[in-house]
Amino acid sequence: MHRFTRYRLAKGQGLAVTALFLGLGLGTVQAGGSGDSTPQVTGKLGSPSATTTIPGNQLPAPAPKFGGVIKETVDGSKAWWPPRVVPPKGAPNVLLIQIDDSGFGTSSTFGGVIPSPTLDKLAASGLRYTAMHNAALCSPTRAATISGRNHHTMGFGVIAEASTGFPGYDANITPDRATVGRILKDNGFATSWFGKNHNTPGWVTTDVGPFDQWPSGYGFEYFYGFPVGETNQWTPYLFRNHTAIFPWRDQPEGTWNLTTAMANEAIDYLRRIDATHPDKPFLLYYAPGGTHSPHHPTKEWIDKISALHLFDGGWNKLRETIFANQKKLGVIPPDAKLTAWPKGPPANLKEWEELSADEKKMFIKQADVFAAYHAYTDHEAGRVIAEIERQGKLDNTLIIWLQGDNGNSAEGTTVGTPNDYAAYNGIDVPVKDQLALFYDKWGGPETAPHMAVAWTWAFDTPYKWTKQVASYLGGNRSGAVISWPARIKDKGGIRNQFHHVIDVVPTILEATGVPAPEYVDGIKQHPIEGVSMVYTFDQKNADAPTTHKAQYFEMIGQRAIYHDGWYANTKVVIAPWDNNPGVKVPDVLDYEWELYDLTTDWTQFEDVAKKNPAKLKELQAVFVKEAKKYNVFPLDNEGFQRFLRPRPSGSPGITEFSYVAPISIALGAMPPYLARDFKVTADIDIPQGGAEGMLITEGGRFNGWGLYLLKGKPVFTYNLVDLHRFRWEGAQAIPSGRHTVVFDFQYDGPGLAKGGTGVLSVDGVEVAKQTIPHTVPAVEIMDEWMDVGYDTRTGVDDRDYKPPFHFSGTIHKITFKPGPPEMTEEQMKRVAEMNAKGRD
């Protein structure tokens, strides 16, 4: 029941009167605040300029009772304005930076060879954290980072594209788990999010909502970025708030890049805040695409890095160099041991000297472009920090820079790829083809590249394994830097305490004096699960024991548990880059376990499970306890196969999609076309003199299909991940008048990546027929629209047209009818089992 609760203003805080707040019962302020719920009022209460802090345990703050006087007319009435909510006095600004897919040994700040002057400078003014941990995969780590809760608690046990419908895996951030954006916004901060948003599930990634799972729904008032796991930096899937934008359209290809544009946008936003509310603290979440694939730096940066010849010695030599640098910097102990190079299953990587001259040449190019992307990203983030400094606000800005949301990515296959969608679909591009077709284009608009796994392993030095592997430090440990000049006086200090990204939000709350709320929108909040790192800011606590005593890890069945310095983990049974469906994977409960004493073994070098069986058993029991507590069960060791399971649709219940032109359909509402029949029907009018242009397309340069008219002739192109384009073309131009163009594809299922037969017809007459041997196996492109009447980003075939390629005739209606998915008996059985479990 609602009740009135009175708060007495502190002595000297404006008028000595009592403010009435209407709201739910206000209880004890939770950890993260000052512990004092007394509002701090400035100015005369009731005046237009008055401000107040709020107790913060109920959001939004209860509305104050009107404190003026109301008569029948304004004569004798007295106005009274509700005070503006502001943060606690002296609260710092917060800049939270999260770099993508960058391993522990990547940046110069943590011993890497890639120049990182922005992060180096930040570390010199603040603290380096050598034992920061994450969830080993993109969106799970990000859900944990912005919430202060474990990734399974937030429904992100895996990326949204592979969600499975269980509480820990449904990619649904529920209202009882408010993010730091919502908490600080309701406490008077300006909140914004720039760059990658991999926490909006695909089925709500539409430009018509709902928007509760978008940054705005998480409390971030301004968003400029891409609501998917990755995007082409030259022609990105870009939104301002909820509206798609295309700022590169009028620029020559290869001159506009999101990495720079995003920094420009953040700088502009900071200037607008400073111009209108110079005293208003901000929370700015800066999450660039770098260094996730596709690796898209500018040519200027590629040339700069290539001139340094950082990688000429190869990946084995690089590992040794990084390891030596790390010891010199003190970011690993002097007695740390370098883990062995992987030889033999499940990871068997060639050593540099085993490679041919052509392989070395291509692989050096791959590393140069990755490093250029890293340096470019560091530079642009530096421009944002420079703007804060120009405004005179750097001294009281808490900067938390997370140098990675997981280990370095091994999703580029053992040979790298010019198109990461080929790699995602298990298709290797031979090195000889990379050299012949893509070497000089690598990193530019005509490629969507990723590097070979051996570079990945080197950039995770000194640890074993990579992104996706949550059981090893190479997958879940990344460097972090925290700077707050007004508060942190141990400039250039190093902190070795064990911490995790769930500790970021508690740190922000304690630093700002803002409490974690008990209620948000009347909903009781799930407790914050991390701990604050503020205790580490003081030099006297440089070697203090960590306050983060236990932490579980789990991703795709790989799992581990940290507890009081001990670390138990399962062995890897299949490498994340191994997409061979024939590989036999043991039952997830039959994985072999290892045990490490991290107090004496910094790098997971020596497995001591056989020496300490009782300790291993003890930690396994701790894992089960934590797993039950945080929604980790049921365990599931399927990887990309999960992409095929049923999940909510952005257009629920629709079996035939109908469109008029011009229109673009966002990712969440695109109809499916993989591993199934599909039929496209276009009802069009051709004017006198003929017509050409796009009728309908899904995808673009790196993956997808399109139905269009080229010089009047009907054409259907199926782009198999930019490696082969299957083409159907009519011999004659379609004459003027009203016509029906149909493309009907019959899939050769069941199973994945099978071929099929397509028939292109005009007014019921077949004009082209072709059987193709393969189709895209499992992963559709995630950063293109479905476009009707034109093409918004990249073309499905650059040889035929350049976007926007508007159709010059009239489109009355286009329909797309997908058939049911055609899977193998084993796949269908697996889906049925999972659905049955979900109903139980």
From TrEMBL:
<keyword id="KW-0378">Hydrolase</keyword>
<keyword id="KW-0732">Signal</keyword>
<feature type="signal peptide">
    <location>
        <begin position="1"/>
        <end position="31"/>
    </location>
</feature>
<dbReference type="InterPro" id="IPR017850">
    <property type="entry name" value="Alkaline_phosphatase_core_sf"/>
</dbReference>
<comment type="similarity">
    <text>Belongs to the sulfatase family.</text>
</comment>
<dbReference type="InterPro" id="IPR050738">
    <property type="entry name" value="Sulfatase"/>
</dbReference>
<dbReference type="InterPro" id="IPR000917">
    <property type="entry name" value="Sulfatase_N"/>
</dbReference>
<feature type="domain" description="Sulfatase N-terminal">
    <location>
        <begin position="92"/>
        <end position="514"/>
    </location>
</feature>
<dbReference type="GO" id="GO:0004065">
    <property type="term" value="F:arylsulfatase activity"/>
</dbReference>
<dbReference type="Pfam" id="PF00884">
    <property type="entry name" value="Sulfatase"/>
</dbReference>
<protein>
    <submittedName>
        <fullName>Arylsulfatase</fullName>
        <ecNumber>3.1.6.1</ecNumber>
    </submittedName>
</protein>
